[in-house]
Amino acid sequence: MSKITRISISIEEDVLEHFDELIQRQGFPTRSEAIKHLIRSALVQRQWEEGAVIAGVITLIYDHHKSQLTQRIVEAQHDFGDLVICSQHAHLDHHNCMENIIVRGPVGQIQQLHHALSAIKGMKHTVLSMTTTGHGV
Ligand code: NI
């Protein structure tokens, strides 16, 4: 664990009041914890912008009865095999499936995989949720 350093900042009173209200509602135990969270969010955002290696989840919603759809999803994952760590499948109802694909790799390649999956004919909805591998934040 890194050494802890104490810092002080200057801030307008009314901004601080609003900030304290916000972090109380969100349940942060201290200002320090809330500010650390914000700083880490900014660092993760910079990783995304710089095309760093990140971790993420691609969520797919589709009807497994659609012709070739399931096969195309599997093929896309094999095409980007270096990125895919694992996937989880849930049968939401008689028609609809949810698949969560856990990925790790350069941002640009993960976005390419997401686009490839989104473009499969018959896909209902997709979401790419990006986070960090935990390094550098
Ligand atoms: Ni299913």
Condensed summary:
The chain has about 140 residues and is an alpha+beta fold.
List the topology elements.
Layout: H1 13-26, H2 31-49, E1 53-63, H3 69-79, E2 84-91, E3 96-106, H4 107-118, E4 125-130
Antiparallel strand pairs: 1-3, 1-4, 2-3
This protein binds nickel (II) ion.
Tags for this model:
137 residues; alpha+beta; single chain; binds nickel (II) ion
State the low-pLDDT regions, or none.
Answer: none
Major sheet size, sense and barrel closure: 4 strands, antiparallel
Helix content bin: 40-55%
Total count of strands: 4
Structural class: alpha+beta
Strand order of the largest sheet: 2-3-1-4
Bound molecules: nickel (II) ion
String of helices and strands = HHEHEEHE
Distance between the termini: 12 Å
Query: Helical region count?
Result: 4
Radius of gyration: 20 Å
Overall pLDDT metric: 96
Fraction in beta strands: 25-35%
| Approximate shape | elongated
Structural account:
This protein is α+β, with helices and mostly antiparallel strands and 137 residues long. Helices cover 41% and strands 26% of the residues. It is built from 4 helices and 4 strands. It has helices spanning 13-26, 31-49, 69-79, 107-118; strands at residues 53-63, 84-91, 96-106, 125-130. A 4-stranded antiparallel sheet has the order 2-3-1-4, with helices on one face. A hairpin with a 4-residue loop joins strand 2 and strand 3 (96-106). The longest helix has 19 residues, at 31-49. The protein is elongated. The model has no long low-confidence stretch (mean pLDDT 96). It binds nickel (II) ion (NI). Nickel (II) ion binds next to strand 2.
